[in-house]
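Deliverable D5.2: sample structural annotation.
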Amino acid sequence: IVVADEWHGKGVARPLLKALMAAGRKHHRLKALVGEALSDNVRMLGLARALDFTIDTAPQDARLVRLQRKL
């Protein structure tokens, strides 16, 4: 999920990510969502934790973390 700067902090990412998760389960039979975020993106990491994503260091770049959640 990428949210334009002017929309940061307005509660846009959570419903978008939840809708993506629901659509992945229902229509596309996805087993997991995997993404990356900057390790200092506190808001995204908080959202990921709130939605039960695991957070691990991304192997290719120490500035990134890998976010993963089984659906």
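Annotation notes: The helical segments are 13-26, 42-50. The mean pLDDT is 93.
The annotation will be released with the project's public dataset once the embargo ends.
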